[in-house]
């Protein structure tokens, strides 16, 4: 039986979810919103607990949504299942 890790989606507008446990590259991750599984992705990276995982492909320049709010902009292409962090996003507050 396949073991799934979990990440929570905080708002339906979001394109990232938050890992609730550490995730290893290759792990199957279920995305939970409102106590329902809304997506499944395979992790492309090791992701620390409380860090973000992309739930859709995100192009360079696309806005990153968490809590239904813009939290940054992609500086690199981010594939589904990839870690979303300071190495591939930038603040929109200083631009």
From TrEMBL:
Keyword Lyase belongs to the record: yes
SAF domain residues: 14-90
Keywords recorded for this protein, A-Z: Lyase
Record Gene3D superfamilies: 2.30.130.110
Pfam families from the UniProt entry: SAF
Gene Ontology terms, MF aspect: lyase activity
Record has Repeat as a keyword: no
Name of protein: Altronate dehydratase small subunit
